[in-house]
Amino acid sequence: MTTYGYARVSTGGQTLSAQEAQLQAAGCAKVYSEKASGAKTDRAALAKVLARLEQGDVLVVTRLDRLARSTRDLLNTLGTITQKGAGFRSLADTWADTTTPHGRLLLTILGGLAEFERELIRARTGEGRKRAMDRGVRFGRPRKLSDHQRQEAIARLNAGETQADVARTYGVDATTIGRLLS
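Above: the chain sequence. Below: its structure as C-alpha cells.
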C-alpha cells in the first residue's frame, strides 16, 4: 500500500511548495505536482498518478478543489480511483475520505445526488426535444436536396435515368439518390 499526493496550482505565479509540504507531512511517498487549470480534465500529472494507483493505494490532496472543479469531474475521478481498488483522502475536507465508512457514505450520497441531477437534465432535454419536434423542427444533418430537387430526381429515376447520372446533376453521391426510392 502506497500513499501518493497530488498538488496543483492554476497559474505560473502560484507556488506548489505549501501543498507539497503538507502532502509529504501526511505521509505521501511521492507527490505528483503540476501547474494547470482545474477546469482542464486532461492534466498530465493527475493522469500519471491515477495510472500508477493499485489495490490498497491512497491518493491524497490538500483540498478537493485541487483535484476537481465540478462535482461531475470529482465523481468521475473518484470512480477511476475506486475501480483500481484505491482510496482517496482530502486533508482539508475530512469528510472526503474513502478509506473510512463515513467518507464512503458521504461520497455515495454525493454521487447519488449527481446521478439524480443527470436524470433531471435528461428528462428536461427529452421534453424540450419533443416540444421542438411538435413545432416541426427537424433534427440531424440538413438534407442535401430540397423537396423540389427530390421530386425532380424521383421523376427522372422513374423515367429511366441511372442513379449515377441523376446524382452528378445535383452534385451528390449516387447512394443519396438511391435513398429517395426507399
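Helices lie at 17-25, 44-52, 71-83, 101-134, 147-158, 163-170, 174-179.
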